[in-house]
Amino acid sequence: MPEPTVANASCKTPRTPAWLAWFIGRLGYGLLTAWVISLVVFIATQALPSDPARVILGPDAPLESILTLQRQLGLDRPILEQYLRWLGSALSGELGVSLDSNAPVADILFGRFGYTLALLAGVIALVVPLALLLGVSLALRRDSRVDRWSLSLLIFLKATPGFLLAIGLVLLFSMPHMDLLPAVSILDPDKSLLRQLQFLVLPVLALGLSALPYLTRMVRASMIEALESDYVVAARLRGIPEWRIVWRHTLPNALIPAIQGVALTLRTLIGGALLAEVIFSYPGIGTSLNSAIQMRDLPMIQAIVLLITLGVVLINLLADLLTVLLTPKLRTARRVTMIRRNRRGIQPWWRRSPSKAP
Length: 358
Prior knowledge:
Blueprint: H1 18-46, H2 52-57, H3 63-73, H4 79-91, H5 105-140, H6 145-159, H7 162-173, H8 201-227, H9 230-237, H10 242-279, H11 285-295, H12 298-325, H13 328-331, H14 336-342
Helix pairs in contact: 1-12, 5-8, 5-10, 6-8, 7-8, 7-10, 8-10, 10-11, 10-12, 11-12
């Protein structure tokens, strides 16, 4: 009698995670967005009323000199040809030469971008811990007098324009009667930024007061929704201490939709940082953009806008990726369509349908 054959289990080829294919699609969409914005910005800068050659040479320059400079700068060529040359140079890391200072744009922006990153890092380091602490505290005291007064104050801060907050801080801390902090951020390039932190205090406070209300209310709403979930009720019935329920079980789940809120705060802070840099004369990319617009420095304008666009795209990609990786249901999904369909359930309350908003 022949021995029975044992069927060997077939080796399955490891399946590529669905989130990886989804992320590649998001990456392509982000790059497409950056390309479209670069095209729009390039055409818009070409449509500025002033001629860069005339701005450089002055209004009394002869026409022959202006035409010669236009040919040297390539401004007499078709817009499409100018854009393709600029895009090719940008992809290779060459952002052109500043029309104002005649220096490479990449060299100018390298130091300025570092100052802007330091400013944004200071704001995030201040706002995120405060927003978490205040948001959790207000969620635990929902509908109390402290909660209502705090929400009113946060709404007032959110409704106040950022430049008014900046001016108010200058009047409060930099006038002769107080004179605690410098009103103008004049940094010494020969010194380390860590030795000049006093120049960062007012810009960080101005941006932090603008960003804190939004992030605090978002954390509060996410915590309230998480505290009303079934697993929290079950944990309380099991006798788990309240502090453990809040900080070890509820807060980590509430932070998943909060990631999108932090990303949106970062995108808002980029625009606010440009304004704060101009108000406080902070040597970041905001002051560079303001000077470039005044001087019609087209290569500088185009490079700064492209840099900001890539930064926003990168923030969106990182926020989406962290959201998917920290959510088991999305991380283990087998189809890209499941990720797209189920991501709505973990988005913050302001992006959901009204029926799901707390």
